[in-house]
Design goal:
The protein is an all-alpha fold. Helices cover 74% and strands 1% of the residues. A two-stranded antiparallel sheet has the order 1-2. Helix 8 (134-155) packs antiparallel against helix 9.
Length: 326
């Protein structure tokens, strides 16, 4: 995806610096060994979309005061820690070696440390959420549950070439879109916005998260290993059949038959390259992009229920910018 910021207010650089500093601070412990493990993927970088979304969402009715800004930063950090902790666990399940261009925690320190460090990040996220009130704490707890539900939905269809598209959409709603929805909702809650505005922000975050994950799945097919910081086509190799793959199969014809003959088992070497080439060169990519555009329209429509402000316009523009980056 493009390196240009998607949620950039005039204060973006300062907000991002505050988020980075607070993230590092949030995982600091007296144990240097745990510090290294817990902060490994944080210091490796990232767009910080979820915390920045929380900060922007808190400003749709105006900039707010310093306390609102600090609480939105903390709420966004809680979401980012959940995301990072879930990546630690995902990399163990996937036996992944690289993430964000660096060794994964499991590759560098082992599976046991990676699992425990992921749990540690989730506990820190919960602690921060609790400091923001019972509603935010409950919201984050439910979101962690939705992440687990989405991941289980994905796992139950591993290597299933007949995976229903509804299963894919349900899975990414849980494991990805829910956390964007929560980040946006926390922004509205800490800014004490009216409930209709908070609900509109939540719907925006959910729709934006769907665009984000479909775009990410498209990049997994179309981008290079260097661009991704991990092997291209990794999901298909691991038996996770995402929307471009499902739409290629749905289109029928010779391409679908050839692809179907390769799926249902781990892919290696020539088979992996052939499967990637089939999906890249057929209508599944275009069809999946069309679905992402539909979700982008939903996200933009949610902005119609928000106050006219610089923050609202930033939110409105972000889905199209995300689509343009794939």
């Amino acid at each position: 995806m493009s390196s240009a910021p998607l949620f950039a207010l005039p204060s973006h650089a300062a907000d991002l610096a505050r988020i980075e500093a607070a993230l590092i601070e949030s995982v600091h412990t007296p144990d240097p060994y745990l510090n290294d493990i817990a902060s490994h993927l944080i210091v490796a970088g990232g767009k910080r979309l979820r915390p920045v979304l929380a900060v922007v969402a808190a400003q749709v009715a105006g900039p707010g005061d310093a306390l609102v800004h600090e609480r939105s930063v903390q709420g966004g950090i809680a979401c980012e820690l959940v995301q990072t902790g879930s990546l630690y666990h995902d990399d163990v399940m996937d036996e992944a070696d690289t993430r964000r261009g660096v060794d994964t925690v499991n590759a560098k320190w082992g599976n046991l440390q990676a699992i425990l460090a992921g749990d540690f990040l989730l506990s820190r996220a919960s602690e921060i959420a609790a400091s923001l009130g019972t509603e935010v704490a409950g919201l984050l707890a439910r979101t962690i549950g939705r992440l687990c539900e989405g991941q289980i939905e994905e796992l139950r269809h591993t290597y299933n070439a007949a995976r229903p598209e509804a299963s894919y959409l349900s899975s990414i709603s849980g494991k990805t879109a829910s956390l964007f929805a929560t980040a946006a909702r926390i922004g509205g809650l800490v800014a004490d916005l009216d409930r209709p505005l908070i609900d509109a922000l939540t719907e925006y975050g959910e729709a934006f998260g769907m665009v984000f994950q479909i775009a990410d799945d498209l990049l997994d097919i179309s981008a290079t290993d260097e661009q991704l910081g991990k092997p291209a086509g990794h999901d298909m190799v691991e038996g996770v059949y995402t929307l471009p793959v499902l739409r290629t199969l749905q289109a029928g014809g010779v391409a679908a038959v050839e692809l179907l003959s390769l799926l249902g088992k781990p892919l290696v070497g020539v088979e992996q390259e052939k499967a990637l080439a089939i999906v890249r060169s057929n209508a599944g990519v275009v069809a999946a992009t069309g679905v992402a555009r539909e979700w982008a329209v939903r996200a933009e429509s949610a902005c119609d229920r928000l106050p006219a402000s610089a923050a609202t316009e930033v939110l409105r523009a972000a889905p199209a910018a995300l689509l343009a980056s794939i």
